[in-house]
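Its record is quoted verbatim for completeness.
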Amino acid sequence: MHFRLSSPKIRHSYDNDPATVRSVNHQRLKSVSARLASTIAARNIISVIQRREIVHRLDIADSSLGDEGCVQLLNFLESPAGRRCKNSLTELYLTKNGIGAKGLLAVSKFIKDNDVLRELCLSGNPLSTNADIIAQFTTALNSSRLCTLQLIHNGTLSDTFIRAFLPSLSTRYLRQLDLSAINITRAVVPTIIEYVTSPRCRLDRLQCNANSLTLPGAREIISTIECENYSLFKVNLDDLHIDEHDGDGEERTLAWQEGWRILNNATQRNLMSKMRVKKQAIALLLCSRALFLRAGMLDMHGGAPTFASVSTLNRISASIKSNIISAPSMFFKLPDEIQHEIIALLAPDLSHRQRMQVVAFAADMRTLPQLDKPDPEPANTAHLPAFMRAGLGRKADSTTNIPYEGSWKPPVWWECACPEEDRRYCRTLRRWERERRDVWLTQVGCDVWEPEFAVRDANL
């Protein structure tokens, strides 16, 4: 098996990326036993990784890894020798590698508490339908910061996998879930509906095409998205195996066209509302920093304000000495109700809870970025106080450096490779800034529009 960064036949946008390792499957591995081919493939991949200064993307599809090779490779990445690669690896493609239950457990161990990996592709692998193994995989996924999960063309998964997977899926960071051509039927439509209507679903994209959901099943999902989902803005339910009892061909065509129209309107609504919420949350953060952030914002116990009401700030502002920073006294002399209304005018599309979470974040000095020069090591590039991991009310541990939760920063040599005047066009730097912003929006719950009535019902 040979590994190289580009192929003369099939070129990708990252062919010239020095941090990408791609594999080209050698036909001679087909003539040896699967176990031997698995070991050879894993050793070759590890050898290439060790020669790279940094690895950002592992595109090792169709590499004859199998379970044994997958375990060997991921164990290496967990070891001290491979830790540098793990701390910079954001994309992992394991398509068509014959990965089963044993390999899926190794993947679960690798992604558990992994705040660097962004994309994981397990398409074309048999994986497992064992409930315990699926539970371990889902638990690990919930603890990670994975944004994209692809399980396409895994025909052995079927309804059994969906029934065990979706009810336990609760990660807030997953944005794209691909479940195309995995042999699911209309029987799991209620399971899909339960997930997309729950606050656990923060997906932007859901792919369920090339399955047997049927036309009535697809229409149920579409109707649910229209009425109760405000997150999804791209949904694919095409190429379904339509039942013979769904009417004649013309009726099915008209029904699907109407369903597509409803789905398109709903996803466009969600996309626009998400854009407004994110934009207003950032604008509110800027205003709240100037209005609420003071040198004496921490209470006597060192905790952050809970912001059950804005009146908390009135008491804190009154205790600020005039020789530190003068408080905007006119605002704080207003009644609490008017203060809330003013804040609401700054971000009208945010729910009350979202606004208070943004204000609470802005009012805590511990959330300000450090001015020190970051460490070039990818695993220790930037830091935030510990309370951002556990919630707004937790006291920060000044003795521990905690990396930005879920952020990825390229090494200094990569970030600064562009001339100063061209850095504004650097895709790597723009990606890093975008991900830091998206992580913050997720932390304060401003990654999706929240109807006020749904928030009130959730608190009851």
Summary: The longest strand covers residues 20-24.
